[in-house]
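Same chain as my last thread, 559 residues:
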Amino acid sequence: MKRHLAALLLAACAPLHAAEPSTPEQVRLTVDATRAKGPMTPIWAWFGYDEPNYTTAPNGKKLLSDIAALSPVPVYVRAHNLMTSGDGSYALKWGSTNMYSEDKDGKPVYDWTIIDGIFDTYIERGMKPLAQIGFMPEALSQRPQPYRHHWKPGTPYQEIMTGWATPPKDYAKWSELVYQWVKHSVARYGQKEVESWYWEVWNEPDGFYLIAPDTKREYFKMYDYAADAVKRALPTARIGGPHTAVAGRFMDDFLQHCLHETNYATGKTGTPLDFVAFHAKGAPKVVNGIVRMGMDAHFRHLDEGFALVEKYPELKNVPVIIGESDPEGCAACGMQTNPENAYRNGTLYASYTAASIAREYDLAARRGVNLIGAVNWSFEFEDQPWFAGFRDLATNGVNKPVLNVFRMLGKMRGERVAVTGDRAYDAAGIQAAGVRGARTDIDALAAKDAHSVAVLVWNYHDDDIIDAGSPVELSIAGIPARQVQMRHYRIDQDHSNSYAAWKRMGSPAHPTPAQVAELQKASELAELGPASTLQTTDGTATVRMQLPRQAVSLLLLTY
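reply #2:
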């Protein structure tokens, strides 16, 4: 067993695998800018993380600034532990604000200092909270000791389930805490600002993040009391849930409760539900020493959640938020302890992100649901080795290749338009069989506005193998101009890739200031070549490129 684990670790940390040389046939993709599919809703402009106190660390502030700068709309940020008791220090899967305690007589003491610092950091950058009502303050916990966990990667995940994870021992005090927090937020940031936020109750209460004899009914009660408190403080506030880990019976029963059952707090029928949220994850594994992604599992979980929303006619136009939408479930599990997570540093994470976000539009449309957000659960981790394989967007203040996918998406505007291709797989096909073996997903997401067409193109495969890829001929029809200006952005081994640059340096454990500056430069979104002018023929522009496996391109045509 030890020998097998060692082999997996070596495979995870080895240079990227290269496939045998081949001469693949040309792949053709066609964009029809006259065929609109729906708005280019910025579902990608949502981010989240477990450790809220990273927000105010220097690297956290830098990354938030970079995220805010790439988006044409306000970015929503979701964080755990916003109500947890503690001194505000950070650790893996831990954080605290100490917003609630009690004096010697058991009377509430509210302290908004730390939470204000976190939310101020968002607001200063034009961001908005997806404000999580959780977790349980120590003074309200039903089982307060032990309260704080000290989990580390490689130890059982269940060790985090300590006193923060219980329902309140006093629902009146719990409700008043929520009321006071919302009321304070309105006083500090203004009613109009707080009306633009989303409030949610807890995280993954379906048998994991909540300890209770009857977890389901206890959560429903927590939600009812919290929702009532939010609406009393600000009737126009938006609150929803249940942010279940999977879209199953728990979520179905929650929707039924909110729509038709008796409210625990008010005694009336029904509970406010301004949006529905659930989580969906993939399932990577190591196969013959190579990481293989599980996009099929990710899409299956997405579709199961959309199907539950579709089941209720009352939810036809209610916003849906995928509260965590990721290749797997543990951002803080690095590749040293979890070799299957070695995809996170390089271009596989980038191509997976491009291909999966693009299909989320189609999965939602197929079920007729109003998808407004898909939270990428990755941020940054302080005090960790360079490129340690955590699911993060940056390492030690240097952005990783995956962040450049979001920079690309930030340049796409207007309406999504039709794309067809001879090597593209629709969401249903990937959900059924993944992208494995001889299947290679070379496809695109395209959008247009009054004076531009943007086309995001990727060459994705579930296996973490890099090869020269395929020649691609991209035809963009429906351009109302005789010529266009084109800029071609690329993520591959030579562009927009700080990880490849770090490896070329020899993977230094402690890069020099000059090396850090070089890594910062390599982390920026790069162009494949200088801007160019293309002539159109009957309103069609044609672009030819070589697209390596796991590479992502953005073509921005303006006229």
